[in-house]
Amino acid sequence: MSKFVTNQNIEIELELASLGERILAFFIDAIIIFFTILAIIGVISELDPDGWIVIAFIIPFMFYSLLFEYFGNGQSLGKRAMNIKVVKLDGTTPTVGSYLLRWLFRLVDIYVLYGGVSIISIIVTENGQRVGDLAAGTVVIKVSSANSGAILKSPAESDHVVTFPVVKQLTDQQIELMKKALEMRRKGFNKEGVASLAEKLKEKFQIETDLPDVKFLYTVIADYEHIANQEF
């Protein structure tokens, strides 16, 4: 587990993907691309002997990792198979700009020295980042196969009674962070992170409560979602 500090100055723990998992994910993607291109060539070459249509169909595969990671919540097909994903250093979802930077640096990371630059960078950097990750401020982490690409949901019943109305000042991104922290806590990780998160919220909004940290955060989430639903 590695510790990271969010934009809200909250410490969280994320389990980094291993070098082996990242390499396997890369080869799974490469195999998928290779056989898909072979199939396209086999079908279209019969219709277009000059090959221009084949080339037109193959060009989009240059953007494979960029498109799949952006639309797949940080996961290409290979990463999904290995249960790993790309996130920002604070645990949040990368922006399109972050994904683009990672993709642009693939030329250096993967194709220079046949991937040697990427492997060396992952090994020597503290958070296992290749050059593209360093440029984009991203990291590759492990995710549960049961919750890959999903976010823990909390109930917001219509008859819910709001305990902390001040939490309406929070943002969707902050609520998402709480859900991720609680999900990791449920799996036995990030105990200190949850306690720190609860303490920061109490200080920020001057909340006094005897609720345990976990129950407090679930209450905050339920309050926020109930208020949001009412406003909507």
Question: Can you walk through the features of this model?
Answer:
The chain is built from eleven helices and four strands; from the N terminus they run ββααααβααααβααα. It has 232 residues and is mostly helical. It has two domains: 2-142, no CATH class; 165-231, no CATH class. Strands 1-2 form a two-stranded antiparallel ribbon. Strands 3-4 form a two-stranded antiparallel ribbon. A hairpin with a 5-residue loop joins strand 1 (2-5) and strand 2. The longest helix has 26 residues, at 19-44.
Overall number of structural domains: 2
Strand order of the largest sheet: 1-2
Order of helices and strands: EEHHHHEHHHHEHHH
Q: What does the largest sheet look like?
A: 2 strands, antiparallel
Number of helices: 11
Strand content: 5-15%
The count of strands amounts to 4
Q: What is the molecular shape?
A: elongated
State mean pLDDT (0 to 100 scale). 83
Q: What would you report as the Rg, rounded to the nearest angstrom?
A: 21 Å
Low-confidence stretches: 145-156
**Structural class, judged by helices and strands?**
mainly alpha
Whole-Å distance between the termini? Answer: 38 Å
Fold topology:
Blueprint: E1 2-5, E2 11-14, H1 19-44, H2 52-58, H3 64-71, H4 77-82, E3 84-88, H5 96-104, H6 106-109, H7 116-124, H8 131-136, E4 138-142, H9 172-186, H10 191-205, H11 213-231
Antiparallel strand pairs: 1-2, 3-4
Keywords:
232 residues, mainly alpha, 2 domains, two-stranded antiparallel ribbon, 4 strands
Describe the structure concisely for a colleague.
This protein is mostly helical and 232 residues long. The protein has 11 helices and 4 strands. The chain has helices spanning 19-44, 52-58, 64-71, 77-82, 96-104, 106-109, 116-124, 131-136, 172-186, 191-205, 213-231; strands at 2-5, 11-14, 84-88, 138-142.
